[in-house]
Amino acid sequence: MATIPTVPTITTGQTPSIATLNQLAACVSFVYAIPAFATLTGSQTLTTATTTALTWTTGTDRDGGHSNSVNPTRYTAQTPGYYDLNCEVAFASNGTGRRYAYFQITTGSGNPGGAGNITQFGYVAADPAAALVAHLSLGGLSRYLYLGDYLEVYAYQNSGSSLSTATCYWQLVLESLGP
Amino acid sequence: MGTIPTIPTFPAGYAAQGAQLAELCTAITWLMSGKPLTLLEQQTAQTLTTATLTAVTWDTRITDRDSGWASGSDTRYTAQTPGYYLLAANVQFASNATGARVIVFQVTTGSGNPAGPGVTTQFGRAGIAAVSGAATCASSKSLTPYMYDGDYAQVLAYQSSGGNLATTTPSNLSVTMASG
After folding, report:
1. Mean pLDDT rounded to a whole number for chain B
2. How far apart are CA B1 and CA B82, in angstroms?
3. Cβ contact, residue pair A123, B37, below 8 Å
4. I need a labelling partner for A40 at 20 to 30 A (CA). Which of A55, A128, B158, B161 fits?
5. Helix or strand or coil: residue B13?
6. Contact B134/A143, CB-based, under 8 Å?
7. In chain B, what residues touch A79 (CB-CB under 8 Å)?
8. pLDDT for B180
9. DSSP string covering B45-94
């Protein structure tokens, strides 16, 4: 979990100590270089007519929310907050059927609502034959994530046979602390 | 109107006062966890007339720190704190294979805007052909023009199926203040 600095309390008439000023500086550093930030990439083969959680490889992961070997479909919140998400899901060229993708949150045991609750959002769908595109661009703000809640990207294709993705990209950044 | 914290100034050679440093603490707290941030959903389907741009209704508030949404004006996010906002929306249209599906953001100025009220700006347009055999979902993410107190943002949706077409749920809108 990223260290969340405590904003000091300074009152009128008080001469703050160096420690207090350093505490304030730590807060500025936190805002300047958000510690919960990740860029992930991935490519895989998707079975037809099956919604599949995409697998990711870490590029940058300041907060240790992703593992290439354990649950590699997940980004697990190590720092509670709202996360800004951007994702590009790219399919290999194929004009048959439809394509869609969306984000999914699954709550962890630290969530006050209990573990295993699912929220899906950010749906994007397209007809590759009609639209002549095979790229879906997803974006949006997550709900408030508690420590241990995790995010995934699900994708679907029904071309009639297995279809590879091209390289897909997913970026996550902590947008705001506090519910 | 939302309160933007005051950033104090410290002239060279000046001994910082506790009150000013307290202001600085307030400003940092606001940046870390207090900026305007809103999540809205449409959980009840809406009927869209063919070939007509229609404001999407957001019937469910998940989070709304700055009280920019109200149930009586449920298509709008009204800026309570002036600034630039990042909007992200996705709208789901019921299964129908005919025509196009479009969403676009629109900002309408309020009476507090120097340009006067009622001036509209559209941006972030996303258009796709209808998907055959399933819901079509359009998505867009864009920064607004500078919004003054009382300016409001909406998501407009368009479909050209040839008849009325409902949305499917959920659709989502997120609003975050990007800069003052």
Report:
1. 94
2. 9
3. no
4. A128
5. coil
6. no
7. none
8. 86
9. --EE-TT--EEPP--EEEEETT----GGGTT-EE-SS-BEEEEEEEEEE-
Q: What is the mean pLDDT of residues A148-166?
A: 96
Whether the CB-CB separation of B80 and B95 falls below 8 Å is answered with no
Closest residue to B31, CB basis, from A15, A31, A122: A31
Return all residues near B1 (Cβ < 8 A) that are at least 6 apart: B80, B81, B149
Q: What digits encode the pLDDT tens for the residues A116-155?
A: 999 999 999 988 865 455 789 999 999 999 999 999 999 9
> pTM of the entire structure?
0.93
Q: Tell me the C-alpha distance between A87 and A102, whole Å.
A: 9
Question: Which tokens sit at B157?
Answer: 């949706």
The pLDDT mean for chain A works out to 92
Tell me if A11 and B134 make a contact (CB, 8 A cut-off): no
Query: By a Cβ cutoff of 8 Å, what residues of chain B touch chain A?
Result: 16-19, 21-22, 24-25, 28-29, 31-35, 37, 39, 41, 62-63, 86, 88-90, 92, 128-139, 141, 170, 172, 174, 176
**Closest of A100, A96, A119 to residue A108, by C-alpha:** A119
